[in-house]
Amino acid sequence: MAYRILIADDEAEIREILRLYLEKEGYEIVEAADGTEAVRLIREEKIDLALLDIMMPGMDGYRVLRNIREENNLPVIMISAKGSDSDKILGLDLGADDYITKPFVPLEAVARVKSNLRRFYALGAGERQKEQGTALQVGNLRLEQDSCLLYRNGERIELTSVEFRIMKLFMENPGRVFTKQQIFEAGWEEAYMVSDNNVMVCISKLRAKLERDGREYIRTIRGLGYRMEKE
Amino acid sequence: MAYRILIADDEAEIREILRLYLEKEGYEIVEAADGTEAVRLIREEKIDLALLDIMMPGMDGYRVLRNIREENNLPVIMISAKGSDSDKILGLDLGADDYITKPFVPLEAVARVKSNLRRFYALGAGERQKEQGTALQVGNLRLEQDSCLLYRNGERIELTSVEFRIMKLFMENPGRVFTKQQIFEAGWEEAYMVSDNNVMVCISKLRAKLERDGREYIRTIRGLGYRMEKE
DNA sequence: AGGCGGTTTAAGGTTCCGTTAAGGTCGCGC
DNA sequence: GCGCGACCTTAACGGAACCTTAAACCGCCT
To answer: Mind listing the pLDDT tens digit for each residue in A22-46?
Structure first.
């Protein structure tokens, strides 16, 4: 049984592209051109995941999201325009499960849909444990994905966005070695690394923030890359 | 099996440069001088990734892209002229997986091609996980490829990058004899061995790390090379 | 316009690992 | 047993890879 996904966006072109990619992955697609239609479809059809554009005529994505949270319980991915409000979104967070910023790479959207479906429907049938689903724990470090905050033994450590994405990469795969290229791609969301010094500076800052000897957490493997210790 | 890449650009010089660099990386190249030819080639040949110039006579890159999205599913990198429209592209175009702006550094193009191929074809088959993800076990030795760590009866042994590659060679083919030349090529990822003393020093260090009498693990075959004992 | 936080660039310092070299050991043929 | 060639081991060295700091830069917000 295929998952049914709602795409809510006022631009037909975007709906089209998303539909193409997602159908290729075997999902069933339902489209909505505005917020009120989105709400109606969620009420009437059985939707497993919703992609909501924030900027829509009439009822915007935020209000649709609130509506969903009041009545249903399904994973929601917000789509927002870059720059204009992407930072704000990270800051105030209204309970969405994930975000995509426009313009986006279709494959990224597919990957996020996949991963959210998996996370949501994997274990308990749709019953999600909000706290654990969005926080990563490795040793005495805990990374809260909602708030972009890292905790070491409960002590809170602030991270920048790049640092956050790097820590996420490490903590999703503890013990694994990543090359600087891979770290760059994860942290900067860019394919072409001009200079690897960037990555080194960032690792250095991270180590400083982790205090004590930061090298207890992130270790250098000369000639290969870096690894976060498992325990 | 080499990836096959389509280069679609009306300037022969650019095609030539890209071809040179990409062939050096072991990719197979197919060229198209305009959009209609590109579409034909994608339909007829088996293409794994397409590089499309936006400005082409006849059918432009956008239309080729849309055509690809309707019929096939492969990563597409757009090539655009700098300044004139690069920003616009980011704004309104949504279907491409990546962008390169002219003039570009060839190595950047290569990096983007590589990274997009990896992203696209890694997830799907999961064959990369088999290649990288598994640990090698021989006797009481276990080599974790993810973390570049060797374990002897659970006790952890750190390796340098050269040592790691040599152990990998041995443990992928336990019981087989390798000449110093072969060991050099695996460990140093270079063809020409200046002096075989290098290899001997490294084997010596490895034996020391394996403790006890390291020769229980790596045996010398006089006049031939070395062999890792099967068990 | 100006400040602020975060990223990039640049430069100098440090570390570590592969290299080199030199002296020792082993094993095989005589 | 002797000798030679192949192999082993150790330690010092040099340089590439890495670290760190600070200043420049940049976009964003007030």
So the answer is: 888 889 999 999 999 999 999 888 9
Which residues is A220 bridged to in the sheet? A226
Across the strands, what pairs with A51?
Answer: A7, A77
Whether residues B69 and A175 touch (CB distance < 8 A) is answered with no
Task: Write out the two tokens for B184.
Answer: 């050099």
Question: What was the pLDDT predicted at A81?
Answer: 67
* Tens of pLDDT, residues B24-73: 889 999 999 999 999 999 999 999 999 998 888 888 887 888 888 777 77
Tell me, what DSSP letter sits at residue B133? I
DSSP A57: S
Point out the residues of chain B with pLDDT beneath 50: 84-92, 124-130
Block residue for tokens 């070395």: B226
CB contact under 8 A, A17 and B162: no
B66: Cα separation from own chain's centroid: 29
Give the CA distances from residue A123 to residues A20, A25, A117, A126, in Å, rounded to whole numbers and listed in that order.
29, 22, 11, 8
Domains and CATH numbers, chain A: 4-121 (3.40.50.2300), 131-228 (1.10.10.10)
Chain B: closest CA distance from residue A85 (Å)? 15
Put simply, the answer to whether B161 touches A193 (Cβ < 8 Å) is: no
Global pTM reads 0.71
B42: exposed, middle or buried (C-beta count within 10 Å: 0-12, 13-18, 19+)?
Answer: buried
Measured CA to CA, the distance from residue A208 to residue A141 in angstroms comes to 15
A interface toward B at CB cutoff 8 Å? 13-14, 17, 20-21, 24, 102-107, 111, 173, 175-177, 181, 185, 191-193, 221-224, 227, 230
Maximum CA extent, chain A: 57
